[in-house]
Amino acid sequence: MPANTESAHARRVLNAVQGHSLHGAAATDPNIADSWRRCLDTHALDPGARMAPRVLESAQLRERRSAMECLRSVSTPVLERLQRQLMNPHQAVLLTAPDGVIVDSRLHDGQRDDFHRAGLWPGADWSESCEGTNGIGTCVVERAPVIICQQDHFRALHTALTCTASPVFAPQGELLAVIDVSSTSADLTRQSQFHTLALVNLSAKVVESEYFFLHYRDEWLLQLQEQADHLGGFAQALIAFDDAGRVLAANQSALNRLGVIRDEIVGTRVDRWFAQTLDALLAQAHPAPSACWPIRTHHGESLLAMVRAPHRAARRIGHLPIPGQETSAPPFSDPALAREFSRACRVFAHDVPVLIRGETGSGKEVFARAVHAASARANGPFVALNCAAIPESLIESELFGYVGGSFTGARKEGMNGKLWQANGGTLFLDEIGDMPFAMQTRLLRVLEDRMVSPLGGGEPVPLDIRILSATHRDLSERIAERLFREDLFYRLSGLEVGVPPLREREDKIDLIQRLLAQACEQGRITVTDAAQDQLCAYAWPGNVRQMRSVIRTLVALSESGVVTLDDLPDELLDVERVAAEASQTEAPLEAAERQALRATLDACQGQVSAAARKLGVSRNTLYRKLKRFGLLRG
Hints:
sequence-specific DNA binding, 28 helices, HTH_Fis, ATP-binding, DNA-binding, five-stranded antiparallel beta sheet, Rossmann fold, transcription
């Protein structure tokens, strides 16, 4: 901004604060007028000053980021999605600490220098006391969403910026952060930012909900909403309570639903506010709830509810099946898998596509079927298409269908494609990273238009589908190699979740028992402790698919109804391989145990009996541990 223009802006601000008539937003928005007065009277700022922004040193910024690690972990995917939604290279997405210091930023590379010249980079202090009226600092003071458009800023230096910000609150009500979108575009108006404000405010609410879930992951959590397909959404009411039923926290939606203030509900018994006992609430709990049930508030309002149990309570309440599924439904007692499943269910209910990442054989389709079964579309079709298993020449007709006689070999009556078969339900695109590039273009058009035309000139048919997709590939690399469309990736990856490989899962024993039950057509097969330890110790490079195959074989070959260590296939007993795999995947505690066993065995010159006596364990137990860690000699 030229010096004379800056001077004119400074005079306008000073005149307005000194009682002269206000112009622009300051005349209609009392927040801006109040902020200008604070800047002059309380902070003693000069609107014409050209001082550089105050920036934290690197060590101070690292400390600030470390203190916000939990919040940053849940906000990162939300900020990335917000940036994709804005689709404007002239806008920066910022996350700040509660005092207005920027801790994270999402910038387009081509605009990085412009934003840095404006002082918008991590470590910069944009509190109102430092930088005057601005989106971040004024949002911190007002604790409410704000739009500060160009000449709304107090300092003339910042009048090239337009800032739209929304606060993020903790479960107890204190300010956690601010999400801000700042733009360097000169042609923006205050009215043009209303849509941006809606997106920023929505993102802040999503972060609040995700932080609530994470902060109270070890407590009971009551989730409330008016409609079933809204459960898991940002607007749901959340109440955290302890084992005794005492309310620990409630979000603003819960306070609004119950018509109370925070101090009235915190510390009371949760069942005081509902026409249902605490025991009845706990009886409905599950570590990864997926089905809702009716509940009435103390003043008679009818809502739908779910209760998420803390994972520490999973053994006490048991592993409940997912409603709408048979007994073959996958267990989600593994904490990481249950957490990802809960996130996927919440966003899928809002028609947000979910991209499932995971190694081959890790159970991505099983995960997808569980998300579908837990949704309001459970009674609709679940249609799966493996993009890597169908020849490229057939995948188009499989996906889109065709009119009879469209090509040589086509059925006379034609065929409905997978897209149409999934109408009213869920389409699961497995191994989406292997879809031919030409098909990606047409699929993107269908997903945007929600219409599908079969091959051969059929009329477009409206579609009502939700999308789940999965891949074992790194789609970023595929995009860089021009093998996958970037715009299709953004369309499919509303939320990315990861299915952990079997070697990292904590529920191997439960999974073994479940697969055994599935494989036994009659009777019951048991596994000895030694065999079970070996099954758990193996790294399973083929993941759940490999374990299922091995267990089916063991069941088929079993004559006594008991699987022992000697019954296991050779690859599971290859001590060198098991040792190598274990060394790559074992936890620090397992590594320490391995080291202690090796040292004791060395001290006893390899005599197992002597080592067992020294360790105070039986010879069989020591043999089992030595075999598990690949330490047997000879």
